[in-house]
Task: inverse folding
């Protein structure tokens, strides 16, 4: 079992920045990769960025060059971050942290990011 808790969402003006954090606890040594998804009303949840246990990252085209995913480990917790710069109105969504563990996917509760004009 892995537990995920996100933080850092909020309201920001277009062009601004936010940093999301996710703390993973539990069976962290079985985590193969962690990532961020987002979902806005009427749309499917979509991958934003991910990082695997080797530190290899993937960033999806809509946010490439603006968002950066990174990770760290501290004792019994894994942390994954999403630095979001040059935010656009279309980045408004609920952002979910996710962990892949031996073929299973775990989710956090989500954090709202709202970009205003």
Result:
């Amino acid at each position: 079992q892995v537990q995920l808790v996100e933080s850092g969402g909020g309201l920001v003006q277009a062009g601004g920045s936010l940093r999301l954090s996710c703390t993973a606890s539990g069976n962290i040594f079985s985590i193969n990769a962690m990532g961020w998804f987002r979902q806005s009303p009427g749309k499917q949840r979509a991958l934003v960025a991910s990082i695997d246990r080797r530190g290899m990252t993937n960033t999806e085209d809509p946010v490439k060059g603006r968002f950066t995913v990174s990770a760290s480990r501290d004792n019994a917790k894994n942390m994954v971050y999403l630095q979001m710069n040059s935010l656009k109105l279309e980045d408004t969504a609920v952002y979910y942290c996710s962990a892949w563990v031996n073929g299973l996917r775990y989710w956090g509760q989500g954090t709202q990011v709202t970009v205003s004009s």
Observations:
- The mean pLDDT is 95.
- Residues 5 and 11 are 19 Å apart (CA to CA).
- DSSP finds no helices and eleven strands in the chain.
- The first strand starts at residue 2 and ends at 7.
